[in-house]
Amino acid sequence: MAVVFEKPHALTDVPMHYCPGCTHGIIHRLVAEVIDELGIEGRTIGIAPVGCSVMAYDYFNCDMIEAAHGRAPAVATGVKRADPDKHIVFTYQGDGDLASIGMAETVHAAARNENITIIFVNNAIYGMTGGQMAPTSLPGQVTQTSPYGRDVNHCGYPIRVCEMLSELEGATYLERVTVNNVANIRKAKKAIKKAFQNQIDGKGFSLVEVVSTCPTNWGLTPKDALTWLEENMLPYYPLGVYKDKTAEEDAK
Amino acid sequence: MAEKVLMKGNEAIAEAAICAGCRHYFGYPITPQTEIAAYMAKKMPKIGGCFLQAESEVAAINMVYGVSATGKRVMTSSSSPGISLKAEGLSYMAGADLPALVVNVQRGGPGLGGIQPSQSDYFQATRGGGHGDYRMIVLAPASVQEMASLTVKGFDLADKYRMTAMILADGTMGQMMEPVSLDFPEPEKVEKPWATNGTDMAREHNIVNSLFLQPDALERTNFERYERYAYIEQHEAMWEEYRMEDAEICVTAFGIASRVAKNAINEARKQGIKVGMIRPITLWPFPVAPFKAAADKVKSFISVELSMGQMIEDIKLATECKKPVYLCNRAGGIIPSPDEVLAAIVKANENGGDL
Amino acid sequence: MSQTQFLFSGFGGQGILFAGKFLAYKGMMEDRQVSWLPSYGPEMRGGTASCSVILSDEPVGSPIVTRPDVLVAMNLPSLDKFESAVAPGGIIFVDSTLVERKVQRTDVTTYYIPATKMAADNNLGNLANMIIVGKLLSVLGEYDADSIATTLGKVISARKANLLDVNRTALQLGADFE
């Protein structure tokens, strides 16, 4: 019988702990499919963050390292520099990890054009700790630590990571995607594949921001969460390519 | 034997690290240890190594974490305030059982403190520095030669026991020049089957991790780790005894303080005072055995420290408070003079052992 | 047991640390125990600089020179600061171009060398430090052309080999100064 659907080899058999409707599962699968298709599992080292995806090290079949909160780009830098010719290194980080406590590590890895791949999952909330305000929580968004809605006069504005990093000379490739429907999931995979291919080709720092949902902490059903993402997240975080030095080079 | 060269302590550490096979260094500038980074920046590119100035101490220790996870020898160095920033990474490395060499060329504290030599990070170093139950091997060089040889030793111990080894020096040791021989044997190849350097599709994936959500699993790793620590306490303590044969007063000092103390002891001996010294070379494991033995012989101990008195607690623990332990100290970046130490020895002698 | 403790002091930029390093190297080449310890900190960025050098036949204890047998003072603040510290019977070398006052101590031997002027007159740039070292070595009876040449070869990198001759000239000038 022909196999029409199977789990990517780069994913283990460990059952994932993610909540129903959470988009982490889709993004994990996309990363794993890309690793399979590029044939790089044997030389890939993934760096898991602190946050909901903290146990990503159990889900990917390649070698995995658990980093301290926000430090994944620094750890990835070490792993990459340890054997630049062999190691393919990716970090998988949430918004609190990457854009709050680890902002310095993110910015400087980009500034160095560190030849690594970052998968940045932005769901505008701290999931693992139970729904606190994130650096990407939207103005007015109600969370456990912004119970009256995010007051920008009190705690400032959410950060658009791709736009911010696009100002850096170092960064090679920055794209924002989402996984709210089949068409966008395909585009997301294409972006993730490019981010890995860039590393294989020695092109440098590639970050794919995936706008995601958190039904549990948003207090919505999975379906309503996708609608909320479309109506609230995407207007503030427009999809698209924010920087692509490889395209600029190709154009020349 | 290789020709001796005159080198700064900081440079001796850097060169010895290279001799030990270290090809990755990450750091952030801070006085008084910047020569280590400068030396590495010059040397590493020429020998196929990697020097990278990190954006922060926090990033530097995490880069160390990354290289160490792949199984290669790696180091960072800093001075007191920077070590506080690295404490997070040190705890994670302990939790993930990763080897590395960390150098602390101490300066006065707390806070920004000063830039002159100090030994006031003793507690921080010997108690681990960061959060959680863990230890680091702490080596305290007292000469430029030891800055080099203990660096090599530190890498070996770190690999052997899968833990961080720290060189706890001070501004004086880092800045002074003495003749040093860098004639070290080729480092032995250490197998690291746990390393995350790519499965090559030939083995199960490795995971480097310090997270254990099940308390019983976490407890088990802690107990296992402490069995290893107990073994290290039994087998790796190092110390030097100086004129202890007939000593009635035992001076204790490490690093630069031990150099000053030697002058004072020699002067006191000229005055007929029976005084000697136990110099701990490993601060963790603390050399308990010689102190236990001395506690039955001497009248009192004098702890000479460049701090408000930190090692003195370990002396009291090691001797089970059998004899008085006095403190002769300066702080804030000031080194006690031989005269000050001599005065403490004379006073202890006159009072039958009491200061 | 023979041990001599030296303290070199002056402004940053006068080559104070280098003068000490030269002496320490010379000691090492002669198989003596040596240590060299600079003051460090703000003085590295201008202001006063000093360094402790110990030459000994026994292992060196504290590398910090608090009671020098030999003091080199290349400016007034240095003489003011360290004159009283010199061991009784010690020797003080003063750069008399820059230090106008005389040494007050009567229990020490003092040599006044107009080193900065001598360096300028002889086109030796800022080698006043080595002129004084030359004098120091001759006073201590340790001026030995061979040993000096070998030591200079060690402390001056091959890249700066053009500096060998001027340093040798400066040392000789100091040694010959009466």
What is the element layout, followed by pairings?
The complex is a heterotrimer of chains A (252), B (355) and C (178).
Chain A: H1 24-38, E1 44-48, H2 56-59, E2 63-66, H3 72-82, E3 88-94, H4 95-101, H5 103-111, E4 117-122, H6 152-155, H7 161-165, E5 173-178, H8 182-200, E6 206-211, H9 215-218, H10 222-236, E7 240-244, H11 245-251
Chain B: E1 5-8, H1 9-19, E2 24-27, H2 34-43, E3 50-53, H3 57-69, E4 74-78, H4 80-95, E5 100-106, H5 122-126, E6 137-139, H6 144-161, E7 164-170, H7 171-175, E8 177-180, E9 207-208, H8 215-235, E10 239-242, E11 249-252, H9 255-270, E12 275-280, E13 282-284, H10 288-295, E14 300-305, H11 311-318, E15 325-329, H12 338-350
Parallel strand pairs in B: 2-3, 2-4, 4-5, 5-7, 6-7, 11-12, 11-14, 14-15
Antiparallel strand pairs in B: 1-8, 6-13, 10-12
Chain C: E1 3-11, H1 16-29, E2 33-38, E3 48-56, E4 70-73, H2 76-82, E5 91-95, E6 109-113, H3 115-121, H4 128-139, H5 145-155, H6 163-176
Parallel strand pairs in C: 1-4, 4-5, 5-6
Antiparallel strand pairs in C: 1-3, 2-3
Features:
heterotrimer; B: about 350 residues; Rossmann fold; 2 domains; 12 helices; C: about 180 residues; alpha/beta; six-stranded mixed β-sheet; 6 helices; 6 strands; globular
Give a nutshell description of this structure.
Chain B is of the alpha/beta class. Chain B has helices at about 10-20, 35-45, 55-70, 80-95, 120-125, 145-160, 170-175, 215-235, 255-270, 290-295, 310-320, 340-350; strands spanning about 5-10, 25, 50-55, 75-80, 100-105, 135-140, 165-170, 175-180, 205-210, 240, 250, 275-280, 280-285, 300-305, 325-330.
